[in-house]
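Q: A small favour: would you put together sequence and C-alpha cells for a protein?
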Amino acid sequence: MRDPQRSAPTATYRLQLQPGFPFRAAEEAVPYLASLGVSHLHLSPVLEAVPGSTHGYDVTDHSAVRAELGGEEGLRSLSRTAREHGLGLVVDIVPNHMAVPAPATLNGPLWEVLRDGPASRYARWFDIDWAEHGGKVLLPVLAGPLGQELHRFTVAGHSEPVLRYGDHAFPLRPGTERLPLPELLDAQWYRPAWWRLARTELNYRRFFTVSELIAVRVEDPEVFAATHGKVVQLLREGVIDGLRVDHPDGLADPAGYLHRLAGAAEGRWTVVEKILSGEERLPADWPVAGTTGYDALRRLDGLFLDPEGAGALGARYRDFTGLPPDRGGDWPATVRRAAYKVITHELAAESERLVRTAGRICEGSHRLRDTAPWALRTALHEILVRLPVYRPYAVPGRPVAPVDAALLDQAAQDARGAFTVPEEAAAAEVVRDAALGRLGQGPDHRDFCARFAQTASALRAKSVEDTAFYRHAPLLSATEVGGDPGRPAVSPEDFHAYCARLQRDWPATGTVLSTHDTKRSADVRARIAALSECPAEWGDLMERLAAAEPGAPDRHTAWLAWQTAFGLGPAGRPADASRLVPAVLKSVREAGLRTTWTEPDARYEAAVEAFVAGGPCGAARAALAPLEDALRPSVRANMLGAALLHLTMPGVPDLYMGTEHAYAALVDPDNRRPPVFSEAEACTEGLSAEKLHLTRTVLRLRRERPEWFGAGASYEPLAADGPAAGHCVAFARSGEAVTVVSRLHRRLTRSGGLPETVLALPGGGRWREVLTGASFGPHPVLAELLERYPVALLVRA
C-alpha cells in the first residue's frame, strides 16, 4: 500500500464542474493552471448525477461518469492533457447518499427497490426501516395531502407501465398495473405522501434533512464494491490520483469505511470532509492524509481578528438588534435553542426511530425494561443538543475511545437536569451506554449506536451551520463551516501550536480558505474581519443608516445586509442586487425566525427584497465609502496575509476556482458560477494583481521545492522583537523559507508602525524576498521588509 503522504500533491485547484463548465472547459484551462503552479486539479463529483445539477452530489449511477460533463472519454481526455502539463487529478466522491430523482428511473437501484420491495437485490443498498408503514417506503413528493392529489396520478406505458405524478415516475409492482388507482397505490412497495410528512414519518435515512437524497449503506462490503468500482478502476488505471471523501460523518462506521477505501485505493492521497469543532482532533486511526481543511480555515481567519474589537462588535450588535439571547443575542444560547428546534421538528423522524430502537433494547433487558419511552425521548434530545462536536465514533464490540466516552459522560450528566424524578433520569445513562455500544452487540444495539452518531452529525450541521450561523451575526466572517462565533479570534501562539501539530501528525492534510460550501469567500471574510478593528465606527454607522434608511424589516436583517455589502465591496460601485438579494433572502430563511423555506412569509420577504435593493444596493451604499477607505490597508493585509499563510503553512493548500486573484462570492449558488480564466490572466493591476502575483510565485516555489513544505519538512515559529512584535506572525519551513505577515493593521498604524521591530532569521546569511526580489541580512527591520507588501516570503540568497 502506498503512503498517502508520499503521494500528496503540492497544491490542488478546485474546479466546480457542471453542464456549463464540463471536462472540456477544464481541459482548456489546464495550460493556465499548470503555469499557476498547482500540482493537481481537484474535481467536484464526476459520476452520473441528476440532470442539470450544478454540484454533482446527487449521484444517480456509480458505474458511469456523468454524460453532461463529457462522459468517461471526456474525463480521460482531461486526465491526458493534465498529465502532458505535469498535473494530476483528485476527485470528490460521495459515499453517503444517492439522489431520489424525478423521475425515479434515473436511479436504477432505487427503481428496483421501489418495484420489488425488500426482496430486491438492491434492498441492502439503502438505509430503509421496512418495519414502518407496513413495509412501504414513504416518498414525500406530493404537493398536498394524498386525498387532494389523487386526481393527478396516471398510469402510462405498455411494456413496463409506470405511475406518474407531475415530473415523477415510479415503478409498478408486477401484476398491479390494471388495478383501480386506490388499490394500485395500496399494492406498491412505496407510499407517495404529502411532502410535509417527511418531518415525522420518513422511514429512510437521508442527507441531513434533504429527502431527495437517500442514504447508502456503504458499510456493507457488497454495496461498497458496487458503489466504488468505477472510482477504483479510474484510480488503478492512473486516470485519477487521489480522493476527497464527502461527509464521512454520515456513515455508520467511518473508520471501517476508510480502511476499506484505503485498501481499494491502494493508499493514494485521500482527505475527508470532517468538520472538527473547537480543539477536536481527527481520529488518529483513520487511514487518510487528513481533513479537507476547514479546521485550518478557522485558524487562518481568526488570526486576523482583533479579539477585543470582536467582543465590542458583539456588544454593539446586541444593542442595535435587541435580540434575545437565544434568538441571536448570545452564541451558546442561540445554538442550544436551534438544536432543540431541529431535533424536535426537522429531525423528528430520525429522533423517533432512535426512541423506538432504544425501547426495544430496554424491552430485551429485565434491568432496563421499565425505562419509559418518554424518558428515553427526553434523554435522547437532551444529550444530543449538548454534544459540542458533530458525532462520536463508537462501534459495538470495539474499544470506546476515551474522548467519546468523556463527551457522552458529560452530556448525560448535564441531561439529568431535565428530569424532576431522579429514578427517571437514569434514562440518560441508558441512552449514553447505548450510544457508546455498551449494552450489547445485537442488531438493535448496532443500529442505535450508528444511528445516534449519524443523527448527531445531522443535528450539529443543521442547528449550527444552517440555523445558528444565520441567527447570530455580529461578525459574519466568523460564521463559517467549522467556525466558532463565540470565540472567533485566534492568537499567534495558538496558530503556531496548531501548525506544529499539523506538521507532526497530519503533514499532508488539506487546507482551504474558500470552497463550494463556504458562506462567503475568503476575500469577503477578509474585508468583514477588518471591522473588528473599528467596532465603534461600524456601530455608529449602523445607527446612522437605520435612521436614514428605515426600510429594513428588522434590525438583524439590516446589520446582516449592510455587513454583507461591505464584504462584497467596493462602495464606489453599486452592489449587484441579483447576487445580494438572494443571499440575504437565503439567510433569513435559514435563520427561520420570521420566514422559512417551508413556511415563507411573502410580505416579510418582499420587505427584505425592497430594503436590500434600495439600501445596500442603492445610493445609500455610498455611506460605506469612508469606512472602506479607512480600512483599505487592513483589508489588503488580511487578504494577502491569509493567502500567504495558507500557501506556506503545513498541509496541502487547495485553491477554489478564481481565488488566485481577488474573489468576492457569497453563499451558493453565487459561489458556483463557472470561472472565467481569461479574466484571471488579464489581471494586471491593483489588489487582484498583487494576490495573483503572490499566489503564482508561492505555488511555483512549492512545486520546485516540495521538500521544504511536505511531510518531511519542519515548522519553526519565529518571534519578532520590538514594540510591534504582536502584529507580526512569522515561521520558517525547513530552515529554507520564511513567511512573514502583518496583522491588525489599523491598530498597528495608530501605534507607530514597524520601524523599531526586527525579525531574526534562522541561520544567519543573506536572504531574498521572492515577491520583490529584494535582499536582506539576518535581522531585517520589519518596516523595510514589509515596505512594498504587508507580507513577505524569504528564501536563502
User: Anything to note?
Assistant: The longest helix spans residues 443-471. The longest strand covers residues 59-65. The mean pLDDT is 96.
